[in-house]
Write a structure and sequence with these properties.
By secondary structure, this protein is mainly alpha-helical. It has one domain (2-67): Arc Repressor Mutant, subunit A (Orthogonal Bundle). 44% of the residues lie in helices and 7% in strands. It is built from 3 helices and 2 strands. The protein has a two-stranded antiparallel sheet with strand order 1-2. β1 and β2 (9-10) form a beta hairpin. The radius of gyration is 11 Å and the shape is globular.
């Protein structure tokens, strides 16, 4: 599912970046340009990061689509 429409970033792209070591929204912004345009994707991207850190796993369920454009 697309998380960042402006930069065509999907949840799978974010998960891949997490597997490669991204551990903050700043890391995702540097690697994928998440949140660098309109910023509406930041909440959902941060939720994916938090889930990975809380669960301590690299494979995540698809996030709630209503959060992508909250």
């Amino acid at each position: 599912m697309y998380i960042c429409i402006c930069n065509a970033v999907t949840d799978k792209d974010i998960q891949c970046a997490i597997k490669k070591g991204a551990c903050s929204l700043n890391d995702l912004s540097k690697q994928l340009k998440v949140g660098t345009c309109c910023g509406r994707c930041k909440t959902c991207a941060k939720k994916i990061l938090n889930q990975s850190q809380t669960l301590g796993i690299q494979t995540l369920a698809t996030p709630d689509p209503t959060l992508a454009f909250a």
